[in-house]
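Supplementary Text 2. Reproducibility record for the structural model of the 336-residue chain.

All settings were left at their defaults, and a single model was retained for analysis rather than an ensemble. We include the record here because the model underlies the residue-level annotations in Supplementary Table 4.
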Amino acid sequence: MFNEVLKFIQEWNIEDKLFAITLDNASDNNAMVELLRSNLLEKQKLYGKGKLFHHRCAAHVLNLICKAGFEIINPIVHKVRKSVKFVEGSISRKQKFEEIIQQPGIEYEKRPNLDTPTRWNSTYLMLNCCLQLKRAFESLTQQDQEYTCAPSLEEWEKAQMVCIILKTFYDATMVISGSHYPTANLYFDEIWEVKIALDNADPEVNADLFETIQYMQRKFRRYWKLTWLQISFPVIFDPRFKLGFVDFRLKQAFGSQAETKIATMKKILLELFKDYSQVNIGNQDMAQQTPAPQIVTNASGSYADWDHHMSHNVPSTSEIPSELEAYFSEASNPSK
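Retained model, structure tokens:
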């Protein structure tokens, strides 16, 4: 695999243009990327000693974690899927269900569509729609004796608890999978929202469900440990946040170990600055004419703690070269 990747890199003449490579979270990729990193470092083609070279695909990792969440409610998902198939099975059933959902007290945003079982996000959307129509399915049980696959009240409640957590995963996946705007600076905040959702999971829930949540937390912590550094740097150069925001979040995430993490991050920042300072960047006029990219944010994200922190603290730029210091000394743009 390494030879094939290197072959295309050389054919496309991009050896000296690579900064990072994003790969699925597969063990085989780790060996390949280390060989590629060593090869490019030997040729002095990587900035910052290649410490930010390997990026794990955030969407792929979130997908793996979500699958663990669905495993615990697979029997419930199966019943919901059969329920949707039942309603869609004939014109008369559709009409009957349409009459039911028009009854007072039933509020919903859209009718459920059958999911694609191999795509967790479509299963989440189906399940979320059906949860809004829970009363309609309960009514259908009473009106149609052939409908025998309705989830129980306890199963609906279990599905509801899982969906509350998975909504954060779904929202994050929708943002970081965008293809019409830059996404590198969005990963940190979206991943942080996922972290908060998992950390705040109710410990009083069903024992089996909480065991699954703990498994999801362990999977997430492993991913966070491997990627916090890579996803921090785009945020540093986002004028809304800069170094202070990452510093603030890392102290929340790592506690007593935060200073060591922050020192590592600043060291790599200085190495990158030194490397890029030695490069003659041309086409500056063209760069100035390039329209500013659309900035996308997570509308549900909360920056209240960050805003409060900024109103009571002055960011430190000690040991930062003058050009970087000038950037970091400027006031951050509004976060909302």
